[in-house]
Amino acid sequence: MKKIMLLLMLLIGFTNQLTAQNFTDPWTPQQLMNTKTLADRIIQNKMKNTVVVNIGPDAVIKNSYNAGAGSDSKNIEKLQTYLKNISKDKEVVLYCGCCPFEKCPNIRPAFKAVIAAGYKNAKLLNIPKNIKIDWIDKGYPVN
User: Fold this and answer.
1) What is the side-by-side order of every strand in the sheet holding 91-95?
2) Whole-model pTM?
3) For 74-97, how does the pLDDT look when each residue is reduced to its tens digit (9 = 90+)?
């Protein structure tokens, strides 16, 4: 019985390690942008060097491009096509807001695509809960 319990515990530990590796975030803490920072830039019309792209269900943020849900490979292709017309010097800010980061199926594939496209100034809008609570309810600019 002890051998079975030990084997079971080792299997659980190994499975947890694999799961943690599969969900490693492709962004660094420095690549997260505060919602207030982006909202202030939009309000102050200081978006010359910034492009905002929705990779979730709907483009809520004012003047953001709607690439569609990043979990769909067709939308990743749409994002890549859109980026071909954007200078690599621009800051590209992605957002979803459907749910917290740890549950979001859209942000990781989209962020990886932006990095792979060569954008050194890629950002992910830090939306801890969802777009309604962290953007709309705060009165930030919407479409």
Assistant:
1) 32-34, 122-126, 91-95, 50-54, 65-66
2) 0.81
3) 999 999 999 999 999 999 999 999
